[in-house]
Write a structure and sequence with these properties.
The complex is a heterodimer of chains A (about 270) and B (about 190). By secondary structure, chain A is an all-alpha fold. Chain A is about 65% helix and about 5% strand. Chain A has 10 helices and 4 strands, in the order αααααααββαββαα. In chain A, strands 1-2 form a two-stranded antiparallel ribbon. A two-stranded antiparallel sheet of chain A has the order 3-4. Chain A is globular. The C terminus of chain A is likely disordered. Chain B has about 190 residues and is mainly α. The model of chain B has no long low-confidence stretch (mean pLDDT about 85). In chain B, about 75% of the residues lie in helices and about 0% in strands. Chain B is globular, with a radius of gyration of 17 Å. Classes of the chains: A mainly alpha (about 270), B mainly alpha (about 190). At the A-B interface, helix 2, helix 4, helix 8 and helix 10 of A face helix 2, helix 4, helix 6, helix 7 and helix 9 of B.
Chain lengths: ~270, ~190
């Protein structure tokens, strides 16, 4: 029983996809103009994540290793299409405001990342809970960002006026909204300060416990999620690459292919270091 | 002609894909440490997005619409892009060695770049024909290249600056992006 609780805790706090792993930045920045948008996006992503984790865990013994990534993508895309229809039919307002970003859930690094790192190796039940944990972690994170932006940018929370706004025409004093927080630059700004704050807390905790100070959250983030996250390979493409290269060695002249592979790998590492 | 110029300016500068649409944030933040790698990434993205928008537009207009299965666009486009990236990589490796050496490393990273899928879907939403889709794809990618190269230039400079401990790494990069987004607002008067 404890295992599944641990998965949920892991998703919300320890490996929060947004703040700790820095995955899925596109929707995080794009749809957080208001808290309710954040919830809409978060729950849609959670639904896709849980369903795709479940199906991938079920099929993990059937999907061959070499075509797993395309298989994951098709499964995820199918669920995204379903969610898109459901939103369009039942909550058209959310569908309107999220627009383009609903189909883009397919390329959200969180979903593919969890499929590869967890669901493909674990049981169905645990994968479902992993999806729930990660989904809630993501939803909470983007709702918080949305709330901050909405509050500073319009004086509202979940669409309700919380802080009375100044009205110069009526001669009424009050809060003057900082509109830039709802616009594009505000997204970068709020996330920058949230991550900086988190780094500050981490450093403080480490100092108190006399532990070595952790390195700042790695800027390479998801470097397009096909590769490494802070040293941990998320989707190990090396294996497939190596097998490809081996085949080549047999077909082409050996020495030439080998040097080519070496230089390729070296430049690859250099670029991602 | 006027329409084409409007598409180019609008997609490359005014509605910059990274700084106002938030597509392709991952490579924008991840591969922007040095101008050299950033321009490699920019080149690869221009190449792939332009090709992908042509293909996606052809497939949508001549296969999905006649069969009345437009709702399959997400699945079809993502598979198309994944296949295209693989194919381009294999093709370059075999026949255009120079280009492969310059762009090869970045190609696998592009499949999960949401800008590619994003452009394909935007083209469909805006009802662009094949020519306009191609031009739109190219200019969106150009906007991406402009943004990532400027970003890399700034990061090369700020690397040696005295940044508060907590802001090192990701936060300072995001702050830079924020200032760039404000600067790009200046273009909004162009259209």
């Amino acid at each position: 029983m404890k295992n599944w609780l641990e998965r949920i805790y892991n998703g919300i706090i320890k490996e929060n996809p947004t703040f700790v792993l820095i995955l899925g930045m596109c929707p995080t920045l794009a749809v957080t103009t208001s808290a309710s948008n954040g919830i809409g996006m978060g729950l849609s992503t959670t639904a896709v994540l849980v369903l795709s984790n479940m199906l991938i865990a079920m099929l993990r013994k059937i999907i061959p290793n070499s075509v797993r990534i395309p298989a994951f993508i098709v499964i995820v895309a199918a669920f995204v299409t379903m969610v898109q229809f459901l939103l369009q039919g039942f909550v058209p307002s959310v569908y309107q405001s999220l627009g383009l970003y609903i189909p883009l859930i397919v390329v959200n690094c969180i979903i593919l990342g969890r499929a590869e790192a967890y669901a493909y190796k674990n049981t169905v039940m645990m994968s479902i809970f992993d999806g729930i944990g990660m989904g809630i972690g993501f939803t909470l994170a983007i709702t918080i960002i949305g709330l901050i932006r909405e509050l500073i940018g319009a004086g509202q929370a979940f669409g309700r006026q919380i802080i009375p706004v100044a009205d110069s025409a009526a001669g009424k004093g009050g809060y003057v909204p900082v509109t830039i927080f709802i616009l594009a630059p505000g997204a970068f700004l709020v996330l920058a300060f949230l991550i900086a704050f988190q780094n500050y807390l981490k450093r403080k905790a480490a100092k108190r416990a006399h532990r070595p100070i952790p390195a700042a959250t790695c800027a390479d983030g998801c470097a397009a999620c096909g590769n490494e996250i802070c040293g941990k390979p998320l989707i190990s493409e090396e294996k497939t690459e190596k097998t490809e290269n081996k085949k080549e060695v047999t077909t082409e002249e050996k020495s030439e292919a080998k040097t080519e592979v070496k230089t390729d790998e070296a430049s690859d590492k250099e670029a991602l270091a | 002609m006027k329409e084409i110029i409007l598409i180019i300016v609008g997609s490359a500068l005014v509605n910059n894909v990274v700084l106002s649409q938030f597509l392709g944030i991952c490579p924008f933040l991840g591969v922007s440490k040095r101008v050299e790698t950033a321009s490699g990434m920019g080149g690869a993205v221009i190449f792939v997005i332009t090709l992908a928008s042509v293909l996606a537009s052809v497939v949508y207009n001549y296969i999905l619409v006649p069969l009345k299965v437009e709702y399959l666009q997400t699945i079809v486009f993502i598979l198309l892009i994944a296949a295209l990236v693989q194919f381009v990589e294999m093709f370059l490796k075999k026949s255009v060695q120079g280009l492969y050496r310059a762009l090869g490393v970045y190609l696998p990273l592009i499949t999960t770049n949401c800008a590619v899928l994003g452009v394909a879907i935007i083209n469909v939403q805006k009802d662009y024909n094949i020519l306009n889709s191609t031009i739109n794809g190219f200019s969106v990618a150009l906007g991406f290249a402009i943004a990532i190269i400027i970003m890399a230039g700034i990061r090369e400079k700020t690397e040696y600056n005295n940044i508060p401990e907590s802001f090192k790494g990701m936060p300072i990069t995001l702050l830079t992006a924020s200032l760039m987004a404000i600067a790009f607002f200046g273009f909004s008067g162009l259209i």
